[in-house]
User: Fold this.
Amino acid sequence: DGGITQSPKYLFRKEGQNVTLSCEQNLNHDAMYWYRQDPGQGLRLIYYSQIVNDFQKGDIAEGYSVSREKKESFPLTVTSAQKNPTAFYLCASRRVGSNQPQHFGDGTRLSIL
Amino acid sequence: GQQVMQIPQYQHVQEGEDFTTYCNSSTTLSNIQWYKQRPGGHPVFLIQLVKSGEVKKQKRLTFQFGEAKKNSSLHITATQTTDVGTYFCAPGADGSEKLVFGKGTKLTVNP
Assistant:
């Protein structure tokens, strides 16, 4: 979706290193999400945020951290505590309201060197 | 968000055959959304179902929401190679912005 930009498209991390994945949206959406996708595992929710300066853990938050200082931005940091970070990471946003569709970015593929 | 089971996990069909994927929940859902992810791409919203027994069609795709709002299905008539991808359901819950997805059904079509 043109309204959500994830960068970089590919990212490599060394052992013991923290890396930050960027997600920016210009859709004026309040809610933003981070998912992790592994082959055969579908989409697993890492963190989500409904409003600026507030966020909640998803199902697999361990080893990750987020911030929501601006409405447009929801960066995800993959910390060294995440022992198996190799995956495809997807950011999404939507208007608040459980019947609103999600819009996804193109994703970031993270690999370990 | 609600948890759902999506079946089958994989489906391989010959072009022109029909395809169906099912999404089942043990609890009543307020709504359900369906998404399609093409290989190498990101999920794209297809449709949302809200009412008990609701049926919606998009060309060759038919979406249904069960009478008890605990299950949903996506049926594709006469598959084409452009239908290849993974189809996900995502149940919604009133009052919650948490959105989780089923594990998806990966469809491959043999031309």
Q: What stands out?
A: Chain A touches chain B through 28 residues (CB under 8 Å). The CA atoms of residues 41 and 87 of chain A lie 11 Å apart. The longest strand of chain A covers residues 42-51. Chain A has a mean pLDDT of 93.
